[in-house]
Amino acid sequence: xxxxxxxxxxxxxxxxxxxxxxxxxxxxxxxxxxxxxxxxxxxxxxxxxxxxxxxxxxxxxxxxxxxxxxxxxxxxxxxxxxxxxxxxxxxxxxxxxxxxxxxxxxxxxxxxxxxxxxxxxxxxxxxxxxxxxxxxxxxxxxxxxxxxxxxxxxxxxxxxxxxxxxxxxxxxxxxxxxxxxxxxxxxxxxxxxxxxxxxxxxxxxxxxxxxxxxxxxxxxxxxxxxxxxxx
Length: 231
Prior knowledge:
One of its GO terms (cellular component) is mitochondrion. The protein has about 230 residues and is of the alpha+beta class.
């Protein structure tokens, strides 16, 4: 059977973290949460990712989205590693064009037995530790208020995540949710761009929903299915 994916309810695990015990469903509460894993503390790509996530934390907070990290290292290791992450972030902010320096204000859960990463479908089949045990992958789940996975990213250990794309994807999800699934975002969409109207919405319904109107692309099929509107 496939692991946890879009449309599945995230397991209600309780784990130790840098902020104390956390039960995932309680942490999600009635908002959105990004649960993201990293292979190991004190590793190069993970350090840059964690620093980047910290620098974007305020942007996610503006959107009502909380962050929740997880790794197979223990809490003591996480807390020591955070010192490196924040020091790296500080050095980045002092360089030309560097990201804003940020503290790691979100919790990082510990999974030393590696049972949680299996339930969360965050295991990298190729990356092993010195004992030959699988490490976490670079997985990211966006979980909605209903505790259901709305979006997932899965990256190998060799590829760091792009936080601009994570933020863009979250904006897309929130836009679709605001309009109750009646709109979707097209390729390369960014906030402020036009969205497309879903095929389940008739032209008559669209006129009521979008009083500023919509534009239908003139395509050879003449089916009128590609309709753009401001949201």
